[in-house]
Every structure is written in C-alpha cells, then in structure tokens.
Specification:
Helix content of chain B: 40-55%
Oligomer: heterodimer
CATH superfamily of the largest domain in chain A: Methylmalonyl-CoA mutase
Radius of gyration of chain A: 23 Å
Shape of chain A: globular
CATH superfamily of chain B: Cobalamin-binding domain
Order of helices and strands of chain B: EHEHEHEHEH
CATH class of chain B: Alpha Beta
CATH architecture of chain B: 3-Layer(aba) Sandwich
Radius of gyration of chain B: 13 Å
Number of helices of chain B: 5
CATH topology of chain B: Rossmann fold
Largest sheet of chain B: 5 strands, parallel
Strand order of the largest sheet of chain A: 4-5-6-7-8
Largest interface: A-B, 41 and 35 residues
Shape of chain B: globular
Helix content of chain A: 40-55%
CATH architecture of the largest domain in chain A: Alpha-Beta Barrel
Strand order of the largest sheet of chain B: 2-1-3-4-5
Number of strands of chain A: 12
Number of helices of chain A: 20
Distance between the termini of chain A: 29 Å
Distance between the termini of chain B: 5 Å
Largest sheet of chain A: 5 strands, parallel
Strand content of chain A: 5-15%
Number of strands of chain B: 5
Structural class of chain A: alpha/beta
C-alpha cells in the first residue's frame, strides 16, 4: 500500500499468495510467466481448463449442501427437503460425539449429542437417515474423519441391506485425517495408525467398492485455519501424496485407486486468485501423477474436487451480506470447473442453517446454472492474459511450497511435530491483526459498519430432548441385537488391528451386527492408542 | 499490579469442539502482551481444566467454545469452581456466543464474554484491568 511518487503511480497490490498484481496484463506477461503451452484442451492432459471436454455443457456441478442435526429422523427430513428443492447430492454433517468415535451415552458426549450434526451410534441410525433416498440418483458424501472407517462401513452395510451392489455404489467419505491434525480437530488415533486406517479404507474400496471415493483430501480446513491459497493447495497435495505412497507401499498399483481420490477446497478470497489456484492445481496434480507415479490413465490424473464453503470469508456482522458473498464464491467455484459445490449459508456464522438459509444457498447455485450462462462454455476465463499469467505463477508457487515442505522432512513429520499447525495459526493471527489495523478491508467489519447492530438471524432450535431419545434408541438396539455375534465381531476387529491387517472387513461385519461407533472405536484405541496433540506456538 | 507478577492465563478448549483458530490467536495476543499463557489443546473435560487451573495457579481462565454447547459446559465448569478453589479467578468465555446467551453465562459467574469479532486488544485490556 505504498503511495506512489506521483499521482500516476498506482497503489501496490499483492495477493494473499504473495504475487504482485499488475494494473494490466498482456500476451507478454503470459510468455514471461511460463507461456501458454500448459493451457491445452479441457478433458486432456494437463487438464488446466477442466477434467472433462464438455464440462457443465453436459451436466452442471453436483449441488451438495452440508446438512445434518439432531436424530437421524430429523436429518432425513432435511435431506428430503433439500432434494425436493433440487439438490443433487447429500453432504452429511455428524455431531461431535460421532466424529470423535463416542457413543451418545458417553460422559464426554454430554451436551453435544445432535448439536452440530446428526447423532449416529449404530447401523439403525443410517437406515433411518437414508430411508426413502435413492442412492443411485443421489450420491452421499460423509463428512467424517477420525471415525471414518466405521462410518464408511456403516454406509456400505446400509446400502447392501437395501439391495445396492457395492461394485456400483458411488459416494464419498472425507476421511482425510492428516488435515484434521492441522485444522478441524476430530482426530482419534496417533498419526501413523491414522494413516494406516485411511490406507485400509482405500484398499478395501479398491477391491469391493471400486466406484466409491474413500478420501477427499482437504485443503479447505487448512485454509480456514490461516493458510494462504498457495499453502492450501501445496499442503493438500503433500497429504494426498502421503496417502498414495502409503497405499503403493502396501502393494496396490496407482491406477487401482488414484482415480477415486478427490479433493475439497475453499473458495473465499480474491476471485482471480482462486480461479488461477484451481487451474494451476489441476495442471500440477496431473503432472505429478504422470511424472512421479508414472500413470498413463487420464482418470488417475484428474483433480476432482468439491470447491465450496467459504465459511472463513463470511461475517457475524451484517449477516445478509453473506448472501452476496456466497453468490460471488459460487461464481468462483463455477468459473474454476468444480465437480461439486456446497455453499455456507448466510446464517452459518451463527447457527445451523435454517431451512430458508439452506434454500437460498441452493437457489444461489441454481441461478448461476439457469440464468447466468455459467454452464454454456468450458473455462470461460481461459486465455485471459491475467488469468493465464496468474495460473502460471500460482503453479510455480504451489510447487515451491511443496518442495520446501518435502525438503524439511515432509508433511507427516511437519504435522506430527506441530510445525504446520504453528505456522498456519501464526498466519491467522497476523491476518486478524491486519484486519484490526485496517490494512485489509472487510465490509461491515472494519469499514461500512453499522452503529447499532443486532444479530438478525433466526437460531436453529437445539432440542434438549434429542440426547435422551437417541440414548433410549441406542439402548434398545443394544438389547435387541445378538450380543454374542457383536462380541465375536468386535474380537475380530481387535485381532485384525493387532495383527496389522486391514480392519475394514471386520468392521463391516461388526456394524452389520449393530456394534456401536463407540465400541468399535474403543477397540481400535486399545491397539493404536490416542493422539497426543503437540502444543506449539 | 505488581511489576514482578506476570499475569498467568489458562486458555482451554472444553468439550469436543475442534475449532482452535480463535483460541490460538488469543494465546498469541496474550503472549505478545507479556502474559504467561498455558494452552490446553483440544478436547479437555471441565474437570481437567479445573485441575490445571488450580495446579498452575493461574489468574485467568479462558474457555473457547464454538460448537454451541457453551451453556452446558459453563454450567458444569461453574459447578466445579468451589471444589477446585477457583472462585477468585477471572473467568472469560470466547467463541461463537450469541448475544442472547451472554446474560446466562454471566449468571453462571462468567466475568467477560468475548464473542467472535471481539478485538484482541479489548480482551487484553480487560484482563489487565481486572487482574491487579
């Protein structure tokens, strides 16, 4: 923000990724930043312009609002509401006890059952949650990490019970534990066994559910924790690399699983920087799969993604402004060639979205599809001098950040000793200070504020009876199930975990016998231990 | 305040909530202000937090909650204060705390509520003013 020497000098602009932005871009800038050889055609290597040739001209992105609260029956009702309003996929929010692998009657679950997501204890909860939903037509994404192996098993068991063939079943689990250690925090086991469990799910799916996406690697939460757009991509790619290396070491071939890995990225911030981030990311990911892992299969090179959320960009102040912000974030996501989109609702800085707020998010996406021409042509910003230059520059920066991290011992080491967490949280602090000093501007926060401001959103009512009802049902299931079958299934999980074998087959059998999330997680904790968070500043 | 006494603060994450961006930002602001800060890390029970506060003899206890469960957590923490001898500590709560719950927290004995959007310097200033 240095003032010019004379009136003609424009102010200096540097984006969040540290790239200085010029007032004007020409063909020369594209050439100097690396040329346009890497632009290519959509649907062909290096996929800068999109992973499919026709992109949204063939089919718009999947609309997948994050939803879930209370008991499974209430969540089922919200799911049906969203589908009735045109939503094309589901994105399941679980309550914190479920995410941490605890049953609803665990003392640590007190006050948390059904609060930030749906409570799940046994297979019965999944049977209720997805009742009446056609799993062929509506794909389901499970936002679950620490307890992912158990919840994926539950999803498969539920689908099989309803007659679906696992070989044809599509869907996604978030199941990216490494980012949970950086942000979001629903870890259970220490780092190494956590990676092993992710590996177990990938191997299991490769064999039994080849169309299912067992992992969605998240730059999203790393960005929300304070990382720049470049770091978001770089760290996510390093995490994905760690899972790939792990699975390769266990004997799978790259093309047996790479096409089922997907990504979850954030969309708030400068529009052009984000679009360039995604275009650069697609190119870098494809090149890495080809060069480092030697694949020739285009599908293994695709950076498939959900680009959505944008929660970190929304504000408590003047919440209606968030409707406008989310619309711009949706535009970013569409211009970036995402496969799936979900938007944070305008009231989400306060509460679980109301039906109305969730509907507005859905309508925001539908307006882009139906009215704004976003699905007419592929990669409409491609060929822009600015966007192509920025894409080249972002790619170089992401590559640089990955190399730097690898040179320091890699992502697993950096997460284990808390280094990444400390670096990201320092940036979050510095960003907040910049905001407080007015060096970065946020409408309604440090400029254009209202003097008398009252929250204007309606709060999602938290039903205090949820916990009691959920526990009552859990106890009924415990009584009705075949206790001996559960005990022997749980013993097999323990034995397989101790032996270092893939625990997924045993977990699938155990959930079919109605073993609980808490019982299964405890068995794994007995073998693997619990994560001890490194506190470092 | 006695120059030689550095203000000691415990910043804690009770319950299962994994949102720690705000807690860590607050820790840094307090460290920069010259306070001695102990950060518990995620997922601590109220009993553990009360024990650490007592054993470390802190002046200030800050709980960070963004899951919406601040009222039940503060009810349980408040009930432990006598047993652990924490009645004279400055008790602060931060996070996703709607206006309508702030009075309820004060009734439970919370001295200051710093919801998302509060300025870091106002938090530091509040602690300086109250701990003397």
């Amino acid at each position: 923000m240095t003032a010019g020497k004379n009136d003609k000098s424009p102010r200096r602009v540097v984006n969040e990724s540290g790239i200085e932005i010029k007032p004007l871009y020409t063909a020369e800038d594209v050439q100097q930043s690396g040329g346009s050889d890497g632009v290519g055609q959509p649907g062909a290597f290096p996929f800068t312009r999109g992973i499919h040739d026709l992109m949204y001209r063939k089919r718009p992105w999947t609309m997948r609002q994050y939803a879930g609260f209370g008991q499974p029956a209430e969540t089922n009702e919200r799911f049906r509401y969203l589908i009735a309003n045109g939503q094309t996929g589901l994105n399941v929010a679980f309550d914190l006890p479920t995410q941490c692998g605890l049953d609803s009657d665990d003392p640590l679950a007190q006050g948390e059952v059904g609060r930030v997501g749906m409570a799940v204890d046994t297979l019965e909860d999944f049977e209720i949650a997805f009742a009446g939903i056609d799993l062929d037509r509506i794909t389901v994404s499970l936002t679950i990490n620490g307890a992912a192996a158990v919840l994926i098993a539950m999803y498969f068991a539920m689908a099989q019970k309803r007659g679906y063939d696992l070989k044809q079943l599509r869907g996604t689990a978030q199941n990216d534990i490494l980012k949970e250690f950086i942000g979001r925090g629903t870890w259970v086991f220490p780092v190494e066994p956590s990676i092993k469990l992710v590996g177990d799910t990938i191997l299991y799916c490769a064999e039994h559910a080849p169309l299912y996406s067992p992992v969605s690697v998240c730059g999203y939460h790393i960005r929300e924790s304070g990382a720049s757009p470049v770091q978001e991509m770089a760290y996510a790619f390093c995490i994905a690399k760690a899972y790939i290396d792990h699975v390769l070491a266990r004997g799978l071939k790259i093309d047996e699983f790479a096409s089922r890995l997907s990504f979850n990225f954030d969309i708030h911030g400068n529009l052009f920087e984000q679009v360039a981030k995604f275009r650069a990311g697609r190119r870098l990911w494809a090149s890495m799969l080809k060069e480092r892992y030697g694949t020739e299969n285009p599908k293994s090179m695709w950076m498939r993604m959900i680009a959505g959320g944008g929660g970190g960009g929304l504000t408590i102040e003047q919440p209606e402004n968030n409707i406008v912000r989310s619309a711009y974030y949706a535009l970013i996501s569409a211009l970036s060639g995402t496969q799936t989109m979900a938007l944070c609702s305008y009231d989400e800085a306060y509460t679980i979205p109301s039906e109305k707020a969730a509907r507005i998010s859905l309508r925001t996406m539908q307006i882009l599809v139906e009215e704004m021409g976003l699905c007419d042509t592929v990669d409409p910003l491609g060929g822009s001098y600015y966007v192509e230059t920025l894409t080249n520059q972002m790619e170089e920066k992401i590559r640089g950040a990955m190399d730097e991290l690898d040179a320091q011992g890699g992502i697993v080491q950096a997460v284990s000793d808390g280094r990444i967490q400390a670096a990201v949280s320092k940036q979050a602090y510095e960003d907040l200070r910049k905001l407080e000093r007015g060096e970065t501007r946020k409408v309604g926060v440090n400029c254009y504020e209202l003097d008398e401001e009252q929250p204007q959103v309606e709060f999602h009512p938290f039903d205090e009876t949820v916990c009691g009802e959920q526990v009552k049902r859990l106890n009924r299931v415990r009584v009705e199930r075949d206790g001996a079958a559960v005990a022997s299934a749980l013993d097999r999980v323990s034995a397989d975990a101790k032996a270092g074998s893939n625990v997924m087959p045993a977990i699938v059998e155990a959930v079919k016998a109605y073993a609980t999330v808490g019982e299964l997680t405890s068995r794994l904790v007995e073998v693997y231990g619990r994560y001890d968070e490194p506190v470092r500043f | 305040m006695n120059e030689s006494h550095r203000i000691r603060v415990l910043v804690a994450k009770p319950g299962l909530d994994g949102h720690d961006v705000g807690a860590k930002v607050v820790v840094r602001a307090m460290m920069e202000a010259g306070f001695e800060v102990i950060y518990t890390g995620l997922r601590k029970s109220v009993e553990e937090i009360a024990r650490i506060a007592r054993d470390e003899d802190v002046d200030v206890i800050g709980l960070s909650v963004l899951s919406g469960s601040h009222v039940p957590i503060c009810e349980r923490f408040g009930a432990l204060q006598k047993e652990y001898g924490l009645g004279d500590k400055l008790w602060i709560v931060g996070g996703n705390i709607p206006q309508r719950d702030q009075e309820a927290l004060r009734t439970l004995g919370v001295d200051g509520v710093f919801a998302v959007g509060s300025e870091l310097d106002s938090l530091v200033g509040f602690i300086r003013e109250k701990v003397s």
